Amino acid sequence: MATINGNSRNNRLRGTNSTDSIFGLAGNDVLFGLGGNDLLDGGDGNDILDGGTGADNLRGGAGNDTYIVDNASDRVVEGNNQGVDTVRASVNWTLGSNLENLVLTGRATRGKGNVLNNRITGNALNNILDGGSGNDVLVGGAGNDNIIGGAGNDTLQGDAGNDTLNGGTGVDVMRGGAGNDLYFVDNARDLVLERANEGIDTVNTTVSFTLGGNVENLTLAGSANINGAGNVLNNTITGNGGSNFLTGGLGDDSLRGAAGNDILQGGDGNDFLDGGAGDDSMAGGAGNDTYVVDSTNDTVTETPGGGIDRVISSIDFVLGEEVENLTLTGTDNLNGFGNALDNTIIGNSGNNTLEGGAGNDYLNGGKGSDTLSGGDGDDTYVIDNEGDIVAENADGGNDTVISILRTYTLVNNVENLILGGTDGIDGVGNDLNNTITGNSSNNSLEGGAGDDTLIGGEGDDTLDGGEGTDTLIGGAGNDLYIVNDTNDTIVEEMGGGIDTVVSNDTFTLSNNLENLVLNGLADIDGTGNATANSIIGNSGNNVLTGGTGNDTLEGRAGNDTLDGGVGNDLMRGGAGDDIYIVDSISDTVIENAEEGTDLVNSSVSFTLGANVENLTLTGNANINGTGNALANSITGNSGNNTLNGGAGNDVLDGGAGSDTMLGSAGDDIYFFDGVGDRAMKTSTKESIPFSPQTPLMALPLPSAATLRTSPWEGQPT
After folding, report:
1. Average pLDDT of the chain?
2. Which of 61, 81, 562, 567 could disulfide-pair with 553, CB 3.0 to 4.6 Å?
3. Burial classification of residue 331, based on how many CB atoms lie within 10 Å of its CB (0-12 exposed, 13-18 middle, 19 or more buried)
């Protein structure tokens, strides 16, 4: 234990680790207590007193003294009017009497002033600074600080961090600095200062207040009838329990009235206005504004040209002039009514009645069984419940239903149908000229009596135009078209799947269509295109023409004519007496037994397949015709033909040209009509030459052969 005394000079005095008493006397002294519970007395002068460890008793005396405090049990004593003194505390600290300033160091987090005009400075931690009753200056530092001015006209500075600044009573100046700061205001003359880009800041006020520059949000506290005004930023302004007048300013503002009969004015920008409880008056001003209505006495006012605006209502509501859109909320069975503008009206989960009025309206009832009436204009209805009802008047515009039901049929006076969602659902038209559009799944679209346009989309769709002159667009997928009029038009994109037309009338496949099926009993025809087509007839007499691809033609019942056209074609006539047109040696004709007497007209050498009776060679080329085991009738063309009847009782007619007719087995008939024709019975190897100079009776006929002649130029009579 030591007693150390200084002198009148500026002394630097250091104690021991025991309990010391150090007296600086006059001069600007620096006193170190080190260990132990020390007494340090600075005396006169601007002294620095550091008690060190232990519970120290520090007396600065006269002058502007600085105290270093590291123990909550340290005691700092200053006399009245003994200078402006500062405590630097590494522990939580409250300034004693006659001490002006406090600086937190180390791990200290709390600092409190006294009745003097204090300056309290925080550190990098999250501090709580309380100025007390004087006109104080409080500086938070780098942490998220809570700064309380207390009584007096205080200056609060948050610096970095998300700070809370409460000036308390008096006229206060508050600067939050960087971070998202919260200000508490209780005096209309309080000043809140923020620089640009220093965070999203909020003022909480119990008095009427207008946000200064760079402050975003304002909340009115208490229950007094006070007002709040924004600035050029996007403000959020919230009222209190009283009747408030809230003004947004130039930005995209959110105004919320809370309780009371409030007046909300959005100003410029796309504003959100919610009056809350009470009878509220709301005016959005310029911009696309949104209003929340919960009272029948709420009013919404918009000016012409004031943007595209929306009301969100939990009660029945009629849109006022210049407001475009309405959304019903909650679960009650509410009604919503539009105006003369183009309205969008959306229901809630209850059973709603929505009426659009004049204008091109969009009505979506949402869940529940809703009644939708668009009125005049080109209206759009969204249907998602079997109980939904669409009511349209005649001459009420060009209207559209968007449906997600399993099957939907257009009601009277509605022109268009769009299938929504991704499920495989169906749509049916009415007597008007409909446009029906499918979704991405497999749809069945049926047009009705008008001149309809059906658009299939991406799935494997079935499109039936019904009566009228229809346009069918299948889109991607393997589509099926039902055609009832020869003037129907089918549009298919290249690579749009393998598509089939079922036609009740004569029909020609357009580009990118593969298959054609003739339906019904009428004698109608089907024609292919450049694709490899499959064309199937009905039970009538059909003419089937394949086009330029490698086609498959099937006549079925009826006396059909099948012409594969260019390409290597497969033709099945089916029942009836069918005619086949062959133009390629790779064409194939297939007939079943007892399916009529059939004829092949061929412009190339051809051998009759099984169950085909007759063959006629066409053109003037030197080509050949060969029969089968049936009784064939084979007729040549104007060229030099070789006709081979094969087994069976055949009739061979070489026609013009020097022809060779081979009867083979059976009772055959030969027709000669020119010099150079000859007949041969292959079973006997006998040859029958013929010329005009050979008497008919002199010809050596094979057994079971009949010779008939046709007149030729110069034939003797």
Report:
1. 94
2. 562
3. exposed
What size, in residues, is the chain?
717
Q: How many CB atoms lie within 10 A of CB 105?
A: 16
Residue 698 pLDDT? 38
Which distant-in-sequence residues (6+ apart) come within 8 Å of 447 by Cβ? 429, 434, 436, 454, 463, 464, 465, 466, 468, 470
For residue 698, the SS3 value is helix
What is the structure's pLDDT at 707?
Answer: 52
Q: Give every CB contact of residue 694 below 8 A, 6+ residues apart in sequence.
A: none
Which tokens sit at 213? 């520059």
- CB of 400 closer than 8 Å to CB of 387: no
Residue 578, token pair as written in the block = 């069918």
Residue 682's pLDDT is what? 57
pLDDT for residue 1:
76
The pair of three-digit structure tokens given for residue 81, joined into one six-digit string: 């009017």
Q: Which two tokens stand for residue 495?
A: 């690579």
Structure tokens at 542: 């059909």
- CA 578 and chain centroid, separation: 55
pLDDT reported for residue 663: 84
Report the amino acid identity of residue 702. Answer: P
**440-474 pLDDT per residue, tens:** 999 999 999 999 999 999 999 999 999 999 999 99
Residue 11 binned pLDDT confidence (cut-offs 50, 70, 90): very high
Distance between CA atoms of residues 92 and 515, nearest Å: 91
| DSSP structure class, residue 701 | P
Angle, CA 632 vertex, CA 628 and CA 638 arms, to 5°: 105
Could you give phi then psi for residue 210, rounded to 5 degrees? Answer: -115, 125
The two structure tokens encoding residue 593? 């037994």
Cα separation of 70 and 164, whole Å?
27
Judged on CB neighbours under 10 Å (0-12, 13-18, 19+), 41 is: buried
Strands (E), 573-702: 579-582, 588-590, 599-602, 606-607, 614-617, 624-626, 633-635, 642-644, 651-653, 660-662, 668-672, 678-681, 686-689
Q: How far is CA 96 from CA 62, 82, 112, 387, 715, in A?
A: 16, 14, 9, 78, 153
> What number is the average pLDDT over the span 596-600?
97
By CB atoms closer than 10 A (0-12, 13-18, 19+), residue 715 is: exposed
State mean pLDDT over 412-417.
98
Measured CA to CA, the distance from residue 423 to residue 442 in angstroms comes to 8
**Backbone angle region of 385, left / alpha / beta, with phi > 0 → left and psi within -120 to 50 → alpha:** beta
Q: Model confidence over 546-569: pLDDT tens digits?
A: 999 999 999 999 999 999 999 999
Query: What confidence category does residue 700 fall into, taking pLDDT thresholds of 50, 70 and 90?
Result: very low
d(C-alpha 43, C-alpha 255), whole Å:
61
Q: How confident is the model at residue 415 (pLDDT cuts 50, 70, 90)?
A: very high
Burial class (CB in 10 A: 0-12, 13-18, 19+), 362: buried
Instruction: At 211, list the tokens.
Output: 């946000």
